[in-house]
Amino acid sequence: MKNSLKQSTNRINMLFKNFKTILSVLPLLLLFFSISLSSFAQKINYKIEFPAPQTHYTSVTIEVSKIPKDKESIDFVMPVWAPGSYLIREFAKGVENVKSDSDIEKTAKNVWKVKTNGKSSVKIMYDVYGFEHSVRTSFIDASHAALIPTSIFMYVDGMKDEPATLEIEKPSDWKTISTSLKNKDEKENIFDIPNYDILADSPIEIGNQDILEFETAGVKHSVVMYGKGNYNKAKITKDMAKVVEEATKVWGENPAEDYKFIVHNSRYGGGGLEHLNSTSLVVDRMSYGTERGYLGFLGLVAHEYFHLWNVKRLRPFALTNYDYTQEQHTNLLWIFEGFTSYYDELLLTRAGFVDDNYYLNTLSGNISSAENKKGRHVQPVTEASFDAWIKAYRPNENSGNTTVSYYGQGSVYAAMLDLMIIEATDSKKNLDDVMRYLYDEYYKKQKRGYTDEEFQAAVAKIAGKSFKSFFDNVVYGTQIPDYATYLGYAGLKLMVSENTSKATLGIRTSESGKNLKVRSTERDGAAYKQGLNVDDEIIAADKFRVTSNGELAEILQYKNVGDEVELLIARDGLLQTLTIKLEADDTKGYRIDKIENPSKKQQKVYQKWFEKK
What we know:
The chain is of the alpha+beta class and 613 residues long. 33% of the residues lie in helices and 26% in strands.
């Protein structure tokens, strides 16, 4: 018994000793296996240079290394669009001088195939011309480079999810690189790229920009200012922080990491494009000095920052994963852009930059714009969302008759839904709760976008009732919302005025020198029905020479509905005379007023709408 026990003890000691030996070498074993595994992983390295930025070119090199021996070729693909801007832009049109250190062949409009020929690494080199000043495209000149990555960098087909590095060789007189990409090994010009989607969503500003900083909502924010502007540094950082705080309150958390506002101050401003941890803005450099201009700037900041959640993380199901080679259609842009437009106005009110009367006037204007569009009787807002790729960004002279804006129409419908939810929940819930629920359920839990049906279900879940009729008839149809009922929930009324006594041709004109041309005709208006066409030059009205819209309006102001006007026009270089019977102007004016003596329930709805405590 003693010997047996002693033998067992010896075995245990031996096992423990062996176990300690294994533990001591485990880190080395893990390192060996990680090195072995990484030796089989293909690596991607991007490099970008600016040998002559005044020519508006940049040179790009992409190297793929550690290629398996059995891989015969690699396809390099240039995206055709930029996320957040729903138009095929054909970025390959700016690419030229494509070369490789191996055999290369262009196989499609935006695809280059490089044969490996048994080599473990291959390179592709090309130049990109960038001279389009917008938030959706790249612009390069002697003073700076503003890069939208999908217009600059190809991706390796089948390797979009692979990590990569980016090296930026900037001209010696450019001091700063601003991007949301993280530096690699603390090197100021080399960046880690977790995957191509991150690169695509990280605009890059290189030059001598002015950088302002503030911290709020637990996140460091940088305002990267290119170009001169009449901004007050202390004021804009303080006010932008308020916008950030109000946006964060809607969602309950802030997922940003070292967020960057990249602002291009130019002679002619406006526009913005959202990204994962940054945004690109174009602002009129002198707009900071007027109340209207400054509120416009803060509204743009609010809009693009709200996209930090709504689009960049919470997405339509169709945009769960980006396909950079073709359109990705969704019915839901009226939510992702329209709701964002709604909140960019509402947040300024909640932050105290404007009062609720200012917002009500803004909403009145939005309703007026939406309801006076002839296209609102033709195109549902969901169809406008789906057809953004072919209609919204490619308008023509007939667009006003056939389309609506998913921005403007969507913002109006968001306001009505908000009031409907507040009323249905006895002022306990609002649209904020719907957005938070969608964010938690689909972005955080299910890690995907949501569908049309899932959005409606989320609204019903929060409201405790279905709004099927509203969705079926208004959102997916062309029925006018019941504004009186919805606004009435908050003790408001919509005042509608008409000007049916005014006689009109129903046209819009453009002036060029001494020429007055028809730019568009309104559906079912006098010109539309009686044959005055777009591009017709109006030379005279009732035998009086006209060279401007003001001169034409002066003649028409003495006419009544049903009167005729004789127009001498030139069409395709040929003169002819048209006699047009004038019709009534059916444009309506909209104004939201507060009712006298609202009930306590209406007051509660109103207070909840603006989140007044």
